[in-house]
Amino acid sequence: MMARILLAWELGGDYGHLMRFLTLARALARRGHEPLFALRELTHVDSVLHDEPFSVFQAPVWVAKISGLPPPIGFAETLMRLGFLHPPALTGLCRGWRTLISTLAPKLLVFDYAPTALLATRGLGLSRVLFGASFSVPPCTEPMPTYRSWRAEPVARVLEAERLVLAGANTALKRLGEPPMGRLADLLDTDDSIIATSEEFDQYPGRTGARYWGGVANLDKGVPPQWPVAGSKRIFAYLKPHFRDLFKVLAALRAIDASVVIHAPGLSVKYTSAHTSTNIAFSPEPLRMQDVCRECDLAICHSGASTVESVVTSGKPVLLLPQHLEQMMTAKRVQELGAGLVVDFEKPAPDYQRLLRRLLDEPSFTQAAQTVAQRHATNAPATRVTRIVDRCEELIALAGSN
Asked: Which H or E run includes 281?
């Protein structure tokens, strides 16, 4: 039986969330279902979904700026920046989600990092699934784990943040006529949790009792890379225009013996023209990652979970340039695997030419990535997606029988 399924994304950026949803939506549509998208931002929708048949809606999201808070060290402190300390505003967002869901009448809700939507849909009696990279499906412990697993954080601060956020969430639930939660981790209480990450890349290392479904990034979307003829090795770079060391990285790439294709969405024509050379080409469109992963010798990116897993499980090393803690959590896992080098955004800029030469010339990085690739050789992304769709259909059938 055909079912309408709402795919909701509320936090985060880049292509990862959208590409994961697209992969899942295509598979659901092939089974006769009707996937709908409720998205945090519509910036990349046309470049990714312009030839797709799916309806897209603007998700209700927090847009106010919260000042006076230190950088977040855990899930609760992230929620502080999303209205969870302001129950009237939080309740308004929840009502927005409820109105959207009531209008669309889905049979299943799939959440990729959508905590306000999770709160809003408590008590509605709908089947709900967590889906996404490991960061958006954190362990349901009390207290919940902090982001920096590699260093101790003050437990008292974590507990106080969870107390404050839980109080705000429960006030909103009371306004909605729903019972309170007993702990913050109850926010993640759904019918299933689909961690679309492989265990080696879990941003919360040491997690127990988890099932890892593996990455489901859409690898066939985009344009094929057009490699410059100059250069003995091939490097793919996915860079953000606001990256602190962008021009230092571009200068290093120009100076080494490599053919480079760069996707830097939003970088002006002025700068792409200035940095295009015999060995550097810019692609204004997202690149087809199945081609990139097969053809490149090295990838450079900001440690987006989907991009990193796709590249490393293809046997290619990475230079990781994280810009915030979520990306650093992924980068640390790759560093532990020995499949790449990490640039710490809290430290001065390194010698990028030296890092690139190490990754290209020292065989240990490629060997480590190939070891990871061998472990995943029989676990194709298409098989993972089939299993996830099977599970979605099970939940729809269970809901229909109740």
From this structure: strand 280-282
Would you say 261 and 285 are in contact if contact means Cβ atoms under 8 Å apart?
Answer: no
Q: Which domain holds residue 159?
A: 4-214+380-401
Determine, yes or no, domain membership for 135. Answer: yes
The single-letter DSSP state of residue 315 is: T
Beta strands in 197-257 (DSSP E): 233-238
Asked if residue 302 is part of any domain, the answer here is: yes
Q: Is 67 helix (H, G, I), strand (E, B) or coil?
A: coil
Residue 156 has pLDDT above 70, yes or no: yes
381: preceding bond cis by omega (within 30 degrees) = no
Angle at CA 41, nearest 5°, toward 35 and 47? 75
Q: Are residues 388 and 368 in the same domain?
A: no
Q: Are residues 114 and 151 in the same domain?
A: yes
Q: Are residues 208 and 237 in the same domain?
A: no
Whether 148 and 284 map to the same domain: the answer is no
- pLDDT (tens digit per residue) in 79-135: 999 999 999 999 999 999 999 999 999 999 999 999 999 999 999 999 999 999 999
Q: Look at residue 45 and give its three-state secondary structure.
A: helix
Q: Indicate whether 224 pLDDT > 90.
A: yes
Angle subtended at Cα 137 by Cα 68 and Cα 75, rounded to the nearest 5 degrees: 20
For residues 303 and 327, the answer to whether their CB atoms sit within 8 Å is yes
pLDDT confidence of residue 19 = 87
- What is the domain count for the chain? 2
d(CA 83, CA 87): 7
Please indicate, yes or no, if residue 226 is contained in any of the structural domains: no
| Residue 274: partners with Cβ closer than 8 Å, 6 or more residues away | none
